[in-house]
Amino acid sequence: MLIDDKLFNEILPQAEASPRGRIHYDLRTQAFESGEWHDTSQRMLNVLTPGTIIPVHRHNESSETVICLRGAVEEVFFDDSGSEVEKHVLRYGSDCAAIQVPRGVYHTCRCLEPRSVIFECKDRAYDSVRTEDLLEK
Questions:
Q1: What is the Cα–Cα distance from 134 to 74, expressed in whole angstroms?
Q2: Which whole-number Å values give the CA distances from 33 to 37, 38, 70, in the listed order?
Q3: pLDDT, tens digit (0-9, with 9 covering 90-100), for 68-95
């Protein structure tokens, strides 16, 4: 499978039609069988449209790698009280196209350009109870 503009353009209409303004495209290699994934990583493309809101959250059991494959996004870090402490623009083809989000750090990603695409990976499969903690303000 090629991960290229053709694939991004095929996925983009789903993101634009989504009420969330984004779509996840799963890249795991092992099949979903008997109600569980055998590939326990999380590897996905996230196709974003401007205005999409990704809740401020943290991953308690894994760091997260974010790589901008098209467009531009802003990765924003917060302290435990919800105050913004750091932000970085990730832009495809720039000197800063990727970031490693440390385990346990609250963060969000804001879409800065239409048709932006990021690659995200974590050590464990998505589990909203065990691995993700939303920041309550």
A1: 18
A2: 6, 7, 32
A3: 999 999 999 999 999 999 999 999 999 9
